[in-house]
User: Fold this.
Amino acid sequence: MEIRDLDLLYLEDAVSLAQENYEMECKHVGGLPDLNYMVYFRTKLEKLFKSGNGKMAFENNNLVAYLAFGDIFNINEQGDKGATSPLFGYGIRSENRAVTIGKLFQYVAKELCEKYAQSLRINIYAHDIEVLQTYIMSSFSMDVTDVIRDVTEPFELNKCQDYIFKELNKEELKFYRSDIMEFYRGSINHLRMSPVFYHCRYFLPLEDRFDDFLSDDMRIFAAFDGNKLIGMIDSEPGRDAFITGGKGTVCMGDVFLNPDYRGRGIASQMLKYANDKLKECGIKTICVTHGTINPTARGFWDKYFQNYSYTMTRQIDSNMLGIIQPI
Ligand SMILES: CC(C)(COP(=O)(O)OP(=O)(O)OC[C@H]1O[C@@H](n2cnc3c(N)ncnc32)[C@H](O)[C@@H]1OP(=O)(O)O)[C@@H](O)C(=O)NCCC(=O)NCCS
Assistant:
C-alpha cells in the first residue's frame, strides 16, 4: 500500500468511496435515508482536500482509501489547536479495513502534530467495527453518538391511560414558562452530576434557552397529569445537510420527566406521541445526538433509535507537538 498526499485528481474516486461507506452503514441501519449524497460529498471533500490535512492510500495505483481532516482551529483562548474529521472524512475499499485506517492515521497524525493540532476528533460509522476498534486501540475515546429512527417503526409500549399528551403552542409555552425552565434546569443538572460531569458552560445562562423554545422551528410535545405539566420533549430541524438536514428529518433535543413520574413508561409514550405527530406532517426520520458518557441518554434514546455514527477524541501530549527529534 502506498500513502500519498490528498490529491484533487482523485476527488471523484474519493466521492465514490464516501458513498460506498455510507451504503455499508445503511445495510445495518434501516432508518438511514436511501439517498445518493455524492453531490454533497463532492463539494465537502473538495474543501477538505484543499485544506490538505489528510492522506490517500493506493494499491496498484488505484485509490483504495482516504482520511481527511478539516482546517486546524483554536480550541480555546490559550491557542491550543485541534482538527476534526467529519463522517465523510474517510472512505475505505479494502479487505483489511483495520490495517488501512491504521496506516492512514499514522501518516495523517504525524502531519497534524507537526502543525500543532493537539486535540483530534474523528467521526466513524457505528457499524464499521474494524475501524472503530483500531481507533479505540489507538487511544481514542467515545464522546458522542448520532442515532436515527424511521417514524414508521412500531413502538411496543403499554398504554399510560392516566396521562394526556399534547403539543404546546406558543401561548401555552409562555403560560408554562416556569415549569419548562425547571425541566431544562433539571436536564442541565443531570448532565453536571456524576457520572457525566459536563460543565454545560455553553448552555448558560439557562434563561436564554427559552427564546429557542419559542422559535418557529422548535416544536414542544408535553405530558400532563390532569392540568399538571409533568414532562416535555422537543424537536427542531437538523442543521447539517448530510443525513439530518434533509427535508424529511428532524432532530429531537431535550427530554425531561418530573422525577416523581419516572419509571412508568411515560417518556416513552411522550416520544411515541411526538413521533406520530411528526409522521403526520410528512417527517420520515427523527435523529438525536447524545453523549455516550450519559447512561440515561444511552438507555432511553438507544432503546428506540439506531446508532449510525460515533465521534471519538484523542488528546496528544502537548510536549510531543511540532517535529519530533530522535533522542
Ligand atoms: C430520561 C427520562 C426522560 C426517562 O423517563 P421515564 O418515563 O422514566 O422513561 P421510560 O419509563 O419511558 O423508560 C423507557 C426506557 O428508557 C430507558 N431508561 C429510562 N430511565 C433510565 C435511566 N435512568 N437509566 C438508563 N436507562 C433509562 C430504559 O431503557 C427504559 O426502558 P425499560 O423501562 O424497559 O428499561 C427521565 O429519566 C428524565 O427526565 N431524566 C433526566 C433527564 C435526562 O436524563 N434526559 C435524557 C438525557 S439527554
About this structure: The chain has a mean pLDDT of 95. The first strand starts at residue 2 and ends at 5. The pocket of coenzyme A is lined by residues 187, 190, 255-257, 262-268, 290, 294-297, 299-300, 303 (CB under 6 Å). The chain has two domains: 2-144+311-320, 164-283.
